[in-house]
From TrEMBL:
<comment type="similarity">
    <text>Belongs to the class-V pyridoxal-phosphate-dependent aminotransferase family.</text>
</comment>
<dbReference type="InterPro" id="IPR015421">
    <property type="entry name" value="PyrdxlP-dep_Trfase_major"/>
</dbReference>
<dbReference type="GO" id="GO:0004760">
    <property type="term" value="F:L-serine-pyruvate transaminase activity"/>
</dbReference>
<keyword id="KW-0032">Aminotransferase</keyword>
<keyword id="KW-0732">Signal</keyword>
<dbReference type="InterPro" id="IPR000192">
    <property type="entry name" value="Aminotrans_V_dom"/>
</dbReference>
<dbReference type="InterPro" id="IPR024169">
    <property type="entry name" value="SP_NH2Trfase/AEP_transaminase"/>
</dbReference>
<dbReference type="GO" id="GO:0005777">
    <property type="term" value="C:peroxisome"/>
</dbReference>
<dbReference type="InterPro" id="IPR015424">
    <property type="entry name" value="PyrdxlP-dep_Trfase"/>
</dbReference>
<feature type="domain" description="Aminotransferase class V">
    <location>
        <begin position="75"/>
        <end position="392"/>
    </location>
</feature>
<dbReference type="InterPro" id="IPR015422">
    <property type="entry name" value="PyrdxlP-dep_Trfase_small"/>
</dbReference>
<protein>
    <recommendedName>
        <fullName>alanine--glyoxylate transaminase</fullName>
        <ecNumber>2.6.1.44</ecNumber>
    </recommendedName>
</protein>
<dbReference type="Pfam" id="PF00266">
    <property type="entry name" value="Aminotran_5"/>
</dbReference>
<feature type="binding site">
    <location>
        <position position="389"/>
    </location>
    <ligand>
        <name>substrate</name>
    </ligand>
</feature>
<feature type="modified residue" description="N6-(pyridoxal phosphate)lysine">
    <location>
        <position position="238"/>
    </location>
</feature>
<keyword id="KW-0663">Pyridoxal phosphate</keyword>
<keyword id="KW-0808">Transferase</keyword>
Length: 423
């Protein structure tokens, strides 16, 4: 009898049925698969076309940055990876021009860093002055209200910027304002917000200065410490020319002190800066797991910041200015009109140019994409339907790229309407 049992057991093992019949493993795994394989998806290695991204973002990544994306994964607390994080923090201090200890890259795109800033620095009932001259001020006002802050709106039509006196007047009239938000590069309207004197105005009234630098960091002259900025966030996929997903955030010690005085914990776990500071070593502490670091995005951000470091910040600012001026004069020679009237208020990184009468911007943009693989985009928020938005950022901020864009745009405009100006 025992011998017969042994034989049956051996046969069962040989057929591999013991595992399948075992209650621990449950029923045949295939019986759980009810959704068929997606027949519309071809599983050969992914291929995407190569395009020149000259819209408001993302911008074309530098080939060296894309090489870094191929590096093997490290654990997010491995010594080699922590070293990369420390280097990124040093490089961000250079890009922001700050000595602040509180510098990091938030996992996620610019919105993640934007939301992280609001979630940490706005407590219920806090009053925030928000400069609204395009979609980013609108979005900030929305975010502040979602975190139960009280918004005081300072409004300007799209295409115009704020003066420190206007900010100071609001601060004097509303002494309860604790935070002042402005957008350095308003990518929906194409304005460059002058920030000279803004930080001082905020300090005179005991408010923190909070600035969006998503479309300016690395491309436009900017010095966090000199301009008295307390909180600023940026993006990786615009001026820095890295893939989206790791967003720089900088906080001054004054802002950090405010965070420590909060009456309530921030209503976010993922973006809680006290916890993130433990992972980023804010107090030179041993690093702790908070969430899995975005390993590959950190490589690419570091590579992009290394390219900036090699070039030099002042040199990168000049290159972007020269590329923008080349673009603006080319557009004007073609008879096109720039949306931002005052040349000093024009953002070098995202240019808004009026769509000529009788031209449908989509025809032009789609011709440029299909024939030349160049992306430009239409307006957003207050400029929707009225302008083209052309991004000259990072890898694309050079004379050849600008010339290529201008001739493709001229060809499209000649096809789809006016003008017929010279190039
Ligand atoms: C000025 C500005 N702020 C914030 C954002 C949001 O960044 P993201 O799209 O990376 O979330 C953008 C994106 O275009 C932007 O241009």
């Amino acid at each position: 009898m025992a011998r017969r049992f042994q034989v049956v057991l051996l046969i069962a093992l040989a057929l591999g049925v013991v595992g399948l019949a075992s209650p621990a493993l449950g029923a045949d795994p295939a019986s759980l698969v009810h959704i068929p394989k997606p027949s519309s998806v071809h599983t050969e290695p992914l291929h995407v076309p190569s395009k020149t991204l000259m819209g408001p973002g993302p911008s074309t990544a530098h080939p060296r940055v894309l090489q870094a994306a191929k590096l093997p994964l490290l654990g997010h607390l491995h010594g080699e990876f922590v070293k990369i994080m420390i280097e990124v923090q040093e490089q961000l201090r250079y890009a922001f021009q700050t000595t602040s200890k509180y510098v990091l890259a938030v996992s996620g795109t610019g919105h993640a860093a934007m939301e992280a800033a609001v979630a940490n620095f706005v407590e219920p009932g806090d009053v925030v002055l928000v400069g609204v001259n395009g979609i980013w001020g609108e979005r900030m006002a929305d975010l502040v209200e979602r975190y139960a802050g009280v918004v005081v709106r300072l409004e300007k039509p799209g295409g115009q910027v704020f003066h420190p006196d206007e900010v100071e007047r609001e601060l004097a009239a509303n002494p309860e304002i604790g935070l002042v938000f402005l957008t350095h590069g308003e990518s929906s309207t194409g304005t460059l917000q002058p920030i000279e004197g803004m930080g001082d105005a905020c300090k005179r009234h005991g408010a923190l200065f909070f600035l969006d630098t998503v479309c300016t960091l690395g491309c436009v002259p900017f010095n966090v410490d000199k301009h008295g900025v307390d909180i600023t966030y940026s993006g990786s996929q615009k001026c820095l020319g890295a893939p989206p997903g790791a967003s720089p955030l900088m906080v001054s010690s004054a802002a950090m002190a405010k965070l420590k005085q909060r009456k309530t914990k921030p209503f976010t776990y993922y973006f809680d800066l006290n916890l993130l500071g433990e992972y980023w070593g804010f107090e030179d502490n041993p690093r702790w797991y908070h969430h899995t670091g975005m390993v590959t995005n950190m490589y690419t951000l570091r590579e992009a910041l290394s390219i900036l470091q090699d070039e030099g910040l002042a040199e990168a600012w000049t290159r972007h200015r020269e590329a923008a001026e080349r673009l603006w004069s080319g557009l004007e020679r073609m008879g096109l009109e720039l949306f931002v009237e005052n040349p000093e208020d024009r953002l070098p990184t995202v240019t808004t140019v009026k769509v000529p009468e009788g031209v449908n911007w989509k025809d032009v943009a789609s011709h440029m994409m299909h024939k030349h693989k160049i992306e430009i985009s239409g307006g957003l928020g207050p400029t929707a339907g009225k302008v083209f938005r052309i991004g000259i950022m990072g890898y694309n901020a050079g004379p050849q790229q600008v010339n290529r864009l201008l001739s493709a745009l001229k060809e499209a405009l000649d096809l789809y309407g006016q003008p017929k100006g010279e190039l």
